[in-house]
Amino acid sequence: MSRLYKTEGVVLRHSYIGEADALITLLTPDRGKLRAVARGAKRPKSRLAGHLEPLTHCRVMLAEGRTLDTVSGCETLESFQRIKSDLWLLSCGLYMVDLADRLSAEGAENRPLFEKLIGALRALAGRVDAGLVLRHFEFHSLATCGYLPELWACVLCHRKLAATTNYFSPAAAGLLCPECKGKEGLDRPASVDCVKVLRFFAQNECSALSRLRLKPRLAREIEDLMQGYVTYVLDRELASARWLRELRSEYSPETVTSGGATDGKGPADSGSD
Ligand SMILES: [Zn+2]
Predict the structure, then answer these.
(1) Distance between CA 192 and CA 22 in Å, rounded?
(2) Ligand 1 centroid to 261 CA: how many Å?
(3) Which of 8, 96, 160, 163 has its CA 20 to 30 A from that of 73?
(4) Residue 205 Cα to ligand 1 middle (Å)
(5) SS3 181
(6) Per CATH, domain 81-269 is 3.30.930.10
(7) Superfamily name and number for 4-78
(8) SS3 string of 39-84?
(9) d(CA 112, ligand 1 centre) in Å
(10) In angstroms, what is the span from residue 187 Cα to ligand 1's centroid?
């Protein structure tokens, strides 16, 4: 008789194996990333199927196996239906779970990452500007893995940064003052407003993001900076990030870059529960 245990998690991935089974990857608060088999989940009448789609927050009962554990019971805690029924929000959600997947290791507990992911999905479902949710999640998911960037003092000379254009260095994990720029390679200018928003991210939960209204140009600057940092840390660009960019080019750049923050008409605001 295999040992049973309970946990909860967000489904990061879901793929079918064989005729009827599914292999799911969950991010849990207490066991880090966890892969398990859901037997019969492909069958239309399976009692597991609807609970194990990507982005679903669920409670699971698992049976320990020799190589992989098996899902023996499952209930949905939050389905995030509003995200799943809107192509733009779904693509944003899938990018976040992809990023969480790449940043986590199986069996390595990272409760803050789980909490940031749940918070970001709630914000995305709760009509907070999607672009801001993504940037805030990038910032904090990297921070939970040891990549919290230094935003107040120059990472090289350690002097307090002045309110002028400074430079962000992914390699040095933080900002460089104008005198130190160019010594680290890959550094890019970070405007005064860009630094202010990054500091706001560092000091606030994503529930506070609704207080921010960014001009499209500033939103794009922060996006380029954060995406550059993510790509540097992962040593690759995620396909889900590329897909988001392609999808956005189908829409008007103004409305989407701002994620609807300026006029309330971006894809982030389309669809409803
Ligand atoms: Zn310096």
Answers:
(1) 48
(2) 34
(3) 96
(4) 29
(5) coil
(6) no
(7) Nucleic acid-binding proteins (2.40.50.140)
(8) CCCCCCCCCCHHHCCCCCEEEEEEECCCCCEEEEEEEEEECCHHHH
(9) 31
(10) 13
> What pLDDT score does 18 carry?
86
* Rounded-to-integer distance, Cα 40 and Cα 16, Å: 10
Closest CA to 94 of 60, 64, 56: 56
Q: Give residue-wise pLDDT tens across range 39-68.
A: 988 888 888 878 899 999 999 999 999 999
Q: Which two tokens stand for residue 265?
A: 């008409």
Element (H, E) at 135: helix 130-144
Q: Specify the 3-state DSSP secondary structure of 76.
A: strand
CA 158 to centroid of ligand 1, rounded, Å: 6
250 Cα–ligand 1 center, Å: 41
Tell me the CA end-to-end span of the chain in Å, nearest whole number.
43
Structure tokens at 75: 């209930």
Going from N- to C-terminal start, the domains of the chain cover 4-78, 81-269
Rounded distance from Cα 197 to ligand 1 centre (Å):
21
Q: Ligand 1 centre and the CA of 20: distance in Å?
A: 58
Query: Ligand 1 center to residue 137 CA distance, Å?
Result: 28
pLDDT, tens digit, for every residue of 215-254? 999 999 999 999 999 999 999 999 999 999 999 888 644 4
CA of 175 to the centre of ligand 1 (A): 8
Record the pTM.
Answer: 0.89
Measure 221 CA to ligand 1 centroid, in angstroms.
22
CB atoms within 10 A of CB 223: 19
